[in-house]
Amino acid sequence: MSRFLRADVQGMHGYAVQPSAGMVKVDTMENPFQLPQHLRAELGARLADVALNRYPAERGDVLRAELARHAQMPDGNNIMLGNGSDELISLLTLAADVPGNVVLAPLPGFVMYEMSAKLQGLKFVGVPTTADFQLDGPAMLAAIREHQPALVWLAFPNNPTASLWDDDVIEAIIEASPGLVVMDEAYQPFASRDSLDRLKRHDHVLLMRTMSKFGLAGVRIGYLIGRNAVIAEIDKLRPPFNISVLNCEAALFALEHADEYAHQAEIIRAERTRITTALSALPGLTPFPSEANMVLVRVPDAARVFAGMKARKVLIKNVSGLHPLLANCLRITVGTPEENTQMLAALTAALNDLNQEAQA
Fold first, then answer.
1. How far separated are the first and last CA of the chain, in Å rounded?
2. How far is CA 307 from CA 102, 279, 312, 351, in A?
3. 290's torsion region: left (phi>0), alpha (psi -120 to 50) or beta?
4. Under a CB-based contact definition with an 8 Å cutoff, are residues 182 and 227 in contact?
5. Which residues have a Cβ under 8 Å from the Cβ of 322 and sit 6 or more positions away?
């Protein structure tokens, strides 16, 4: 079959998901909390009444309206749903698939921006951040002048660095960009700022969010907000029944209990501070400021620390191979208080192993 399949696809590496059975799983930026038992029972009863024999229809429109209200969507804008943010990234890239078009994003960043561009045959331009993972404003503006990108991705906060970019630099990038600028706010529940005002002021800015970090990673609901005319064009590419009736109903239920998820986010933010403080106290470690539900930390030897923690049944993400700026960096998702205690104990033990080996 190899002669019938694209050579570039055959040469790619698929998105790897680490086996996590029996582990403290703090590697994929999930909300670690489930709903309280009484709400789970209520949700189960509600899902039991969903018409599984019918295609999704009007309830999707209800969800769009509720998400627009939840996000405080400005007048003159519209909203479309995706099967997670990944589908929206693919659809936006497909919409921009014009010969000669360029997709641009800072690096290190979310891998799907580059992957989607390359799968569509578009040129991808990655602009390295500064050493402390902030936007390199002059380099971004120079790249925009040179390549005139059709699509610019700005994750706010960024993944895997958890950085919240400087507002003045973002504004300069938006004003210089000839095409669409997408503010990817997957981690907005944990950040101190958002881009809603940018959406109001700039016709070519789109705002993308997801319910995954809200607490519904298993439900796969992403949404894109932008000017009516722009969303109308991109929505033409959306599969007509891309959000299942079960996913739609679960998302509506979650929005009805947004206060519970806001409480969970508050705990996660407090635990993020606790983790960062603990990491700062460990010799040889450099944690970076975080505005997401993860903490990026540089360690003496990422591969060996990762292996030492995994041997102690704690699963984190070794991102050191994703970009040269991430050398010896690990990304740690903020878990429950109990999980974070176990994670810090495993990390300390793994570091002790390194020190003992160095002294031997």
1. 53
2. 38, 18, 9, 11
3. beta
4. no
5. 108, 111, 160
pLDDT value, residue 9: 82
CA pair distance 57, 150, nearest whole angstrom: 32
Place of tokens 């704690």: 314
Q: What is the pLDDT of residue 3?
A: 80
pTM exceeding 0.90: yes
| More confidently predicted of 222 and 7 | 222
Task: List the strands of the sheet with 329-333, edge to edge.
Answer: 286-287, 294-298, 329-333, 317-318
Vertex 10, ends 90 and 325: CA angle to 5°? 65
Interval 183-189 mean pLDDT: 96
Cα 243 from Cα 163, distance rounded (Å): 30
Structural contact between residues 223 and 79, judged by C-beta atoms closer than 8 angstroms: yes
Mean pLDDT across the chain: 95
In tens, the pLDDT along 307-329 reads: 999 999 999 999 999 999 999 99
Confidence of residue 171 (pLDDT cuts 50, 70, 90): very high
CA distance 271 to 209: 23
In the three-class reduction of DSSP (H, G, I as helix; E, B as strand; rest coil), residue 80 is classed as: strand
Here the tokens at position 68 are 């627009």
Q: How many angstroms separate the CA atoms of 36 and 187, rounded? A: 23
